[in-house]
Design a protein that fits this description.
With 507 residues, the protein is α+β, with helices and mostly antiparallel strands. Helices cover 25% and strands 26% of the residues. It is built from ten helices and 24 strands. The strands form six sheets. Strands 1-2-3-4-6-5 form a six-stranded antiparallel beta sheet, covered by helices on one side. A hairpin with a 2-residue loop joins strand 2 and strand 3. The longest helix is centred in the middle third of the chain and has 34 residues. InterPro entries: Galactose-bd-like_sf, Kinase-like_dom_sf.
Length: 507
């Protein structure tokens, strides 16, 4: 039987996923761009020919991967198989793969390390659930349009290819090492070139280390790469034998920050890669813009008039900066000297910034899922993940059938115990990017709902949300209370990646 998929554009799966564009097809597996008609968003859909040999394995792997909660891993929304068809639905990811980022040569060493550090932490979480990748390639590591790291294809790729191993932790650690090598050198340390990257140079039958290939690679990153994927060059150093070990070795590197990149009018799509037996859709090639240089005066021809003009402009800039600093200092002094005086609109932001600078971060003693109107507990076993200082981990509520908590209760939340009563200047909660949440900040000295006073409310909250009381507030217990939760793949739950409590510096 032909490997061509039996489905065509316009086909609707599960009465909600409408197939629109066939992105790629290989060996009986077809990748589509589709529309989730219920949530009105694009999704990636894999369909399979009737004679595809590993349908059950792929669907089983996808269902297991759907339970992963790390936002740096591709989210699987649905997977099904029956006598007529089989499919896997996952998020539609846009951005640039590591291959794209390396189009003009190696990355800055710290940026390459930061990208791989994020990937290593994400894969460590997958391994905790006994899910592995086994075929990491540059096309699997993405810097998304949302300025986040995304690792594509955990569990699903291996099932699609029929890959198995007796040492999954070691294999994925080696894969991460190869990604780091590629980021540092622009070369691929493998038996063949990968994704357009040239093969790594060799010396005496072994791959050269990153420092031998690219000048300026820090010694510690060269060592980490060697320990992860170049056994012949270790010289007695122990191997990094799991993603968690790779993550630990890179724990102190700076994490990647947004950089200005010129995307084509239709963003590049990378919901799958050829390592899955699928080719990425033909994309318009653009040259990524390098990071913006430090602000400097425009360069002009080096003649006498231009040089004089440069000096005049520089003098004006310096005078303007001095004037701005003076005005800011006067405004802050005025606001501090007259706290009860009504401030002008222009002075208000300065006062706020001053208060923020003086604020101290309070580390909660513990956290628990708070469900006093239900069964009493709301996933307290993972509540600590919202205060662990790691933005990739999270706490979330139970799943509900509607935004108003299935009409089962008026609210549910995350309760923090600060250990003692203290003044609260604000609480910053990083929620999911899905809009629609309504959250309240409640504070008090008793962990009872009736004793906690609502001091701030944010409607349609998403992403980083600051909850600041309008008046002086203090208490031992801080509650982030959801009264409405956003939707996610047809279900509803609230999510908190991280909570940071600030107390005035004078407290």
């Amino acid at each position: 039987m032909s490997s061509t998929s039996a489905v065509e554009p316009g086909t609707r799966l599960a009465e909600r996923f409408r197939l629109e564009d066939r992105v790629s097809e290989s060996d009986g597996a077809t990748l589509w761009k589709a529309i989730d008609e219920i949530l009105a968003r694009p999704v990636a859909v894999h369909t399979f020919a009737p004679d595809f040999p590993r349908v059950h394995e792929v669907v089983t792997a996808a269902r297991a991967a759907s339970r992963l909660t790390d936002p740096r891993l591709t989210q699987v929304f649905d997977a099904a198989e029956d006598d007529k068809s089989a499919y896997v639905v996952s998020e539609w990811v846009t951005g640039e793969t590591l291959t794209d980022l390396l189009a003009n040569g190696p990355l800055e060493p710290e940026r390459a390390a930061g990208l791989v550090a994020e990937a290593a932490e994400a894969l460590a979480h997958a391994h905790e659930a006994n899910l592995y990748h086994l075929c990491l390639r540059p096309s699997h590591l993405m810097w998304t349009n949302g300025n986040t790291v995304k690792v594509l294809g955990v569990a699903v790729d291996a099932a699609m290819w029929g890959l198995t191993t007796d040492q999954p932790a070691l294999d994925d650690a080696e894969g991460l090492g190869r990604l780091l090598y590629a980021g540092l050198t622009g070369h691929w340390p493998g038996d063949e070139e990968e994704g357009g990257l040239p093969a790594a140079p060799m010396s005496d039958g072994h791959f050269c280390t990153p420092r031998q290939v690219t000048a300026g690679v820090p010694g510690y990153l060269d060592t980490i790469t060697v320990r992860a994927c170049l056994p012949e060059s270790r010289r007695g150093q122990g191997a990094l034998a799991s993603p968690s070990e790779v993550a630990d070795s890179l724990a102190d590197v700076a994490r990647p920050m947004p950089i200005p990149i010129s995307y084509p009018s239709t963003p590049a799509v990378a919901s799958a890669s050829h390592t899955e037996g699928l080719d990425i859709a033909h994309r318009q090639k653009t040259t990524p813009s390098p990071p913006l240089p430090p602000l400097q005066m425009p360069h002009r021809p080096s003649n006498g008039g231009g040089s004089t003009l440069n000096r005049v402009l520089m003098t004006l800039v310096v005078l303007l900066v001095i004037a701005a600093v003076g005005v800011g200092a006067w405004t802050i002094g005025r606001s501090l000297g007259s706290p009860t005086t009504s401030q002008t609109a222009s002075a208000a932001p300065t006062s706020t910034q001053s208060a923020t600078v003086n604020a101290q971060v309070v580390k909660p003693k513990n956290a628990k899922g708070f469900d006093p109107l239900g069964d009493g507990d709301e996933k307290s076993d993972i509540a600590k993940l919202a205060i662990d200082g790691k933005p990739g981990t999270l706490w979330k509520t139970e799943t509900y059938t509607s935004a108003d908590l299935g009409r089962l209760k008026d609210g549910v939340g995350l309760l923090l115990d600060l250990g003692k009563s203290m003044q609260i200047s604000d609480v910053v909660a990083t929620l999911s990017d899905a809009p629609g949440a309504t959250v309240e900040l409640k504070v008090g000295d008793s962990p009872e709902l009736d004793s906690l006073k609502t001091v701030a409310t944010e409607k349609n909250a998403a992403g980083k949300t600051t909850l600041a009381p309008d008046e002086a507030t203090s208490g031992q217990y801080v509650l982030i209370w959801f009264t409405r939760v956003p939707t996610d793949a047809g279900t509803f739950h609230g999510t908190i990646y991280e909570v940071v409590v600030h107390s005035p510096g004078s407290a």
